[in-house]
Amino acid sequence: MTELFWVVWAIVLGVTLSFALGGFAALRPRWAGILVASGAGAVGGIGLSALFYYIGALRGSETLAIAMELTAICGGAFLAWMRRWPRTAEASGSGGLKLTFAGAVALLLVIVTLAFAAAWQSNPQGNWDAWAIWNMRARYLAAGDGFAARAWSPVLGAASHPEYPLLLSSFIASCWAFSHSASELAPIATGYVFFLALLAMVTGGVAALRGPVLGLAAGLVLLASPALLREAPAQYADVPLACYMAGAMVLAMLDRPVFAGILAGFAAWTKDEGLLFLAIFLVVSAVIKRRAAILAVAGALPVALVAVAFKLSLPRMATSFTGVSGGGLASRAADFSRAGIILAAFGREIAAMSTSWYHPVLPLIALGVACGLERERLRAAAYSGSVALLLLLGYFGIFLVTGYDLSGNSIRRSAGCWSRSGRYLS
């Protein structure tokens, strides 16, 4: 149970810094600001703890990691005390409808949590990627005595993808190392925190942007998304990646570019898809938001440099994108039959998001028809839509030039892997 203390410790670290530096007190309704600050702070704290532990592991010193965390949380606590949130009264419009939606969100969250608990009890190790990639690499990082480098050693083999970024593995390793325990509680709790943070940031962000009722409706859409509910207890890195991606977009549209950049940087340190997202996020921000893009770059740069340095320090591995895409790249890019295979696979994955008559896109269409799109909101729609579209085009381009076999089950499994995190951005 002691590993849960370190999960809570990371949350307190991030939430303290978020409330102190994020300026979320200005958001209305007040509860929306609290949700955004708490969600962004929780996953930001996990990202910081993972980064500190990774740096400590490189130096062979757990003490260094703990010292950096103590320094950060003490500084954040002092700033939070100096910048206490003001107490202000708020208007209470649409009270009945708002309470109805809030009650529905709370009830559905309880039901979903009970379903997760059953999944955790029956399969505490998580699904394949959890124990074959993320948690196995965490065990090497937590072992000490020079074993950390084995977390990215080619000896692990293709199935463990030693070239993948290390945020999730580093954080789980920190909980195991500091608590001197390697139980399943740390990865289970970590996955649940990312799920709650995703829900909090989307619900609070939409509430602050478009009103409390629509914010709560957005939370209901997430809680009723089968793809998300299947992945959350699996202990994969897709939900953490989606959380960082969605959080970065929400914070960017709430004019918090530094915090948006920080979460985008953590996305790059979570999975390879996050590197593509970071590049697209910064380019689209530079085109549409311009001045805010500089602040976003400043927020993303420290973690992005760590992610890029990690990639550049690795030998060319057979499992990496560059390792399988070098020869014959031009001929594959010009092969129209490959494009057809990829488009068909994307279509199957989008269709597979549905269960019976329900599809996650249907609530978005209903809201768009019922509420319309105000002209001043077109800029925000163009911003978020451009990022999502360019991500899909980027995935398409990567599949087009990769040296992996695109026939049969290979492309279906690959398309599913690349699209899982993107599903939750809708």
Mind explaining what this structure looks like?
The chain is mostly helical and 426 residues long. Helices cover 74% and strands 0% of the residues. It is globular and about 60 Å long. The C terminus is likely disordered.
Q: Which features characterize this protein?
A:
19 helices, 426 residues, 74% helix, globular, disordered C terminus, mainly alpha
| Class inferred from helices and paired strands | mainly alpha
Number of helices: 19
> What is the number of strand segments?
0
Low-confidence stretches: 421-426
Q: Write down the oligomeric state.
A: single chain
Mean pLDDT reading: 84
Order of helices and strands: HHHHHHHHHHHHHHHHHHH
Quote the distance from N terminus to C terminus.
Answer: 36 Å
Please report which band the strand proportion falls in: under 5%, 5-15%, 15-25%, 25-35%, 35-45% or over 45%.
Answer: under 5%
Radius of gyration: 21 Å
The major pleated sheet works out as: none
Overall geometric form: globular
Helix content: over 70%
